[in-house]
Amino acid sequence: MDIPTTPARFDSAELSELLDGRWAHVRSRVREALAGIELPDGSDLDTESHRARTLEQLHLLAKSGIPELGFPESCGGRQDIGGSVVSLEMLPGNLSLMVKAGVQWGLFGGAVVALGTERHHERYLRDIMTLDLPGCFAMTETGHGSDVQNLRTTATYDPATEEFVVHTPHESARKEYIGNAARDGRLAVVFAQLVTGGKSHGVHALLVPVRDANGESLPGVRIEDCGRKAGLNGVDNGRITFDQVRVPREALLNRYGDVEPDGTYRSPIAGAGKRFFTMLGTLIRGRISVAGTAGSATKLALEIALRYGDARRQFERPGTGDETVVLDYLAHQRKLLPALAKTFALHFAQEELVSTLHDLRDSGDERRQRELESRAAGLKAVSTWHATRTIQTCREACGGAGYLAENQLAQLKADTDVFTTFEGDNTVLLQLVAKGLLTNYKDHVDELGPLGMVRFVADQVVEAVFERTPARSLVRRVADTRRDDVFDRGWQLELFEDREKHVLDGLARRLRRATGDNAFEVFNSAQDHVLRAATVHIERRVLEAFVAAVERCRDRDTAALLDRLCDLYALSTVEADRGWFLEHERISPRRSKAVTEAVNELCRRLRPHAVDLVAAFGLPRQWLTAPIATGAEAARQRTQRAHDRAPER
Amino acid sequence: MDIPTTPARFDSAELSELLDGRWAHVRSRVREALAGIELPDGSDLDTESHRARTLEQLHLLAKSGIPELGFPESCGGRQDIGGSVVSLEMLPGNLSLMVKAGVQWGLFGGAVVALGTERHHERYLRDIMTLDLPGCFAMTETGHGSDVQNLRTTATYDPATEEFVVHTPHESARKEYIGNAARDGRLAVVFAQLVTGGKSHGVHALLVPVRDANGESLPGVRIEDCGRKAGLNGVDNGRITFDQVRVPREALLNRYGDVEPDGTYRSPIAGAGKRFFTMLGTLIRGRISVAGTAGSATKLALEIALRYGDARRQFERPGTGDETVVLDYLAHQRKLLPALAKTFALHFAQEELVSTLHDLRDSGDERRQRELESRAAGLKAVSTWHATRTIQTCREACGGAGYLAENQLAQLKADTDVFTTFEGDNTVLLQLVAKGLLTNYKDHVDELGPLGMVRFVADQVVEAVFERTPARSLVRRVADTRRDDVFDRGWQLELFEDREKHVLDGLARRLRRATGDNAFEVFNSAQDHVLRAATVHIERRVLEAFVAAVERCRDRDTAALLDRLCDLYALSTVEADRGWFLEHERISPRRSKAVTEAVNELCRRLRPHAVDLVAAFGLPRQWLTAPIATGAEAARQRTQRAHDRAPER
User: Fold this and answer.
1) Which positions are tagged coiled coil (chains A, B) (predicted)?
2) Which ipTM did the prediction report?
3) Residue B529 and which of A193, B265, B409, B598 are 20 to 30 A apart at CA?
4) Are A259 and A335 members of one domain?
C-alpha cells in the first residue's frame, strides 16, 4: 500500500503547543495550580465521606483562582468564558469534583450571570464564586428530563404580597437529580411555569432559598437524597419538592422577562417558546464543558491503556526468545489507535467550539448563536458516546488489571457513563442538530420536541449547511492538491460532504410528506434517518477541524504525523460507515477494501508514536496514578526476562 | 413492505416452556428454592461487609441443594452437569454470589472432580460441596493471563521426601486475581510447571493448603488482597506467592499425569502441550457458565429497560393530549429490540451448548470435545460482548434513572464488565475458534498462542465446518420453503453460510503464505480477518440454533412471533455487517436498503409484545427490584395525567 510519509520522530513540544491552542496560558496555569494542590479522587470512600471530601476540594479549587475565569469583572472575575471551559476540562482524574464545580460555578453561577440582572449579580455573584453560597440548578423534573419546556412546577405571582408562590403540583413535577441538593446547596435557581393574572408565560427561573445556614431545609421545601449512583458519588444529587413556597418578586431572574408589582408581565421577546429557548441558549456553556470533560477522560483512559499496552507482553514471538508486546498486535492497535485519532479530531473540534462560544458572547448575532447551540449539541453527543465506548475498550484492553480500582479505568467508566444523558440526552440532542440543519436558523426555535422539525421542514428547502468554518477555505485548497487514492485528503473531505448532503436531502424529502394528521408517524418512521443526518454532519465538521489543525502545524515532521492521524480518523470513520457508502455507490467494493487495508497500515505506522502522541495532551500528572501505567508493569517484565534468561532457571 | 404475519397475541406459557427447555425442571426448582431464600445483592455495602454477606449467602446456597447438581453421585451429588450450569445462570441479580459459587463449586470443585482421582474425590468433594472446605482455583499469574501454558510457578519433585516444592520464582509468576483467596479460601488448586528429575513436563495442578482453619495463611504462603474492583466486590480476589512450599506427592491431581515415588513421570498423554490442553478441556464448564450468566444479566437489564420504556412518556403527541410512550419511538425500539432478538438467539444457542456439554461428558470423543471447546469459546465471547453492549444501552435508554443504584443497571454493568476478560479474554478466545475452524480437530491442539494457527494451516485444507448440528437438517428443509425476499429464511441462512465460507477460505489463503521467518507478520497482518472468521462462524451457529427453536415451537401464534424475532436477529445482524456483504457483492445496494427497512418494520411489529417476550424468560422475581420497572413510573404517569386533565390546573 502506497502510504504517504510517516516520520520516524516528531517534536512533542510542537505538538503540545498546537494541542494547548488558544487557551495554552490557562492550561499552563491550571497545570501549575494543580501541581500545588492534592485533589485525590474519593471513590474509595463511603458516600457521605466522599461528598464531604469533594466539598473540601471544591473549597480548595475556589481559592485557586480557577473559578474566577468564568465570572464578570464587576464581581472580581476575569470574564474569560473560553478559559473557564478549558480549566474545568483539566480535572478528568476527579470527575465528582469536576461535576460539582460545574454545578456550582457553571450551572448555578452561570444561570445567575446569564438570566439575572444587576440586582442579582451584586447580591450573589461574589459569594457564589468564593463558594460562600453553594447552590443548585433546579431544572429537570422527575416527569420531564428532556422535554423541559413542559415542566410542571409553577411560580404564580401574588400581587397582594408582591411574591411568587413556587409549587410542585405532583410527584412528576418534583425537581429531580439536582446536583448540590442532597447536602450542600442553600440557594436554588428553580425553573417553573410563570403564571400571573391567571395566564402562563412559559418557563422562567427564580432564586429560591432551600436551606438555612445550618443546612436545615427551609419551610415548605422537602429535599430527598437520590442515593447511590453508578458513579460521581462525590456529588450530592437530590430531589426537591416545593409546597407553596413564597419568594419576593425580585427573586425572578428577570433578564428575559419580568413581572411588575401589579402583576403585569413584560418581556423583550415575544412568544413563550422562543423566550425559553433564548434563555436555554445562554446556558450552553455547561453542555460544552461536558463535551470537553468527556474528551479529557477519554485521553486519560487512552494514556493508561497505551502505556500498559506498550509494556505488557503475552505469547512468545518465535525466534526472538521474547514475548510479544501486546500493542504490537494488530487487534490491539485496532482497538486503541482509531480511538486515539478520533480523540485528536474531537479535541480540535472542541477548541473551535469553545472559541466560537467565547467570541460570540453577548454579540446578539442570533444566527451564529443558533449554529453554536447546534454544534454544541452535536459535539456533546458525539464526544460523550466516544468517551463511553473508548473507556470501555481501554478497560478491556487492560484485561483483569483494567478491572481493578487502582488502575482508574473502573472509576472513569462509572463517572463518565452519565455524560451521554445529562446536559441533554444524546438522542434528543442529535434531533436538535438535525432540526438546525433543516431550517435556516431563523426565528423558528420554538420547540425541542421531535415533531418540531417536521413542522419546520414542511415548507422549507434544506439550507446550504456548508457555511464558512475555520476549516472551509483550507478544505478547498487541500482538496485540489492531493493524489487520487484513499489518502487523498480532498477525496476524503468530499466524501464526507457528499454523504451529508445526500442524507439531508433525503431526510427533507421524507419529512415533507408530513401533513397535520400523520406528522408523528412520518417523523417516527424516519427517526433513524434523522439521527444519521446529525451524526454525519458532526463527523464532517470534526474532520474539517482536524484538517485545519494540521494546516496550523508549523513543524514539518509533526505535521506529517498529524496528517497520518487525520487519515486514520477519516478512514476509520469511512470504514465504520462503509455500509452506507457502498449502498449509495459512493465507493466501489474495491475501494472499500482498500480503506480497511489503509486503516491497518496506518495503525502499524502510528503504533511506535502512540504513547508520545497521547502524552502530548499534557494532562496534569497528578491524575495518572494507575500502577500499570506508571512503571509497575515495565518493572515486572524486566524482572521476568532477567529471570528467564538466567542460566539456572 | 410485505412482512410475514405477526400475530396479535401469543401464548406466554408456551413460550416460557420452550425457553426453559431441557432443564425446565431445574429452572423450576431453582425458582422455587430462590423464592424461599432472600439473597439481596450487597453492592451497597463496604468491601468487607459485602464479602461477609456473600459468604453467608453462599452457605445458604450450599444448603439449597443447588450445588449438588454438579457433583458425582459418589459424594452425594446428582451428576447433572447441564443442570448445574443452568442453575448458576439463575442468579443474575446477585452476580458476586454467582461468581463466588462458580469459583467454589465450578472451578475449584470442578478441577478436583476432573483432574483428581479417587483419593482426592473421597477426601475432599463432600466438604467442597457443603462449603466446609472453601477453596481457590489458582491458574492465572500476574505475567500470564491468556498464555497459561507458559506460566512460571514451579512444582519440583523431591524424591528424598516424596514431596513437591511449589515455588513462585518472581513477581510475574505470582498467582493473580484468585477468587476466594483474599479472605475465605483454605485449599487451592495450583497450576504449575511440573519438574521431576530436572525435566519439565508442562503444567499440572496440585492441591496446596493456603490457610489454616482460623484463616491465617500457612508458612511460605503470602496472600495479598487485590482490593477494590469495578464490580463483583463480594468476591475476595487475592494474589498468592509461594516460597518453597512443600506438599506431599499425593497432592498432585493425577488423572492425566503422575509422579512415582522415585520421581518417574508417567502420563496417558504424550506431549506436554496436548496433555495440558486436555486438562483445560475438562474445565470448560466455567466458560460455559459465564456465557449463560452473561445471558441472564442481559435479560434482566432488558426487562428493566423495556418495562420502563413501556411506562415512561416524553414529548407531547399532537392531537392526543398525551405524551408519547418512549418505547413507541423508533429510535428507542432500535436500541432495545434487536438486542432482545439477539438475546433470544443466544439463549437457544446456549441451550444447545449446555446439552452438548452434558451429553459428551467422559465420552472420550475427542473430535466432538474439541468442537465443544471451540463453540464454548466463541459463544462466551459473543455472549459477554453482547451483555456489555446491551446493558450499557439499557442504562442509556433509562436516562438518569438508569444511573441510580436503586435501578440495578449500574451494578449489572459493573459486575458483568469483567465477563469479557475472565474465563478467557474474548479476543484470545475468538482466535481459538478460528484455529479450530482451520484445522480438522485432530490432535493438533498444542498451543493457545496466536501463531499456533499459522503453523497448522500451512499444509491443511479448510475443513468442512458445516457439520451436522441440531439445526442443520431443519435448515435444509426451511431453505426450500420460503419466499424470495429478505424475510426468506433460506436466503438468510445461505447468506450467513456463504459469508462464513468466503471469510474462512480467504483467511486460509492468507495464512498459507507464512514461512518460518515471517509467521508472526503474516498472522499479525491478518488478525482482524482471524477475528472476523470466528465471529461470522458463531453468528451462523447462533442463527441455526434460533431457527431450530422456532421449529420446535408447537403453538402457531407463538411460533409466528418467534419467527419474526428470528428475522429481526438475522436481519439486524446482516444490517450491522452490510459493509462486508456489499463489499463482496453478496447483496445489492437495493437489497441492503430493504434490510434496514425490514429491521425498522420488525421493530414496529414486535414492539407491542416486547414486555411479554422478555418476561417469558422467567427470571426469578426476587431479582427485579428496580422501582422504574416495578410500578413507580407507571403510577407517576397516572398521577400526572389525572392532574393535567383536571379542570383546575
Assistant:
1) none
2) 0.95
3) B598
4) no
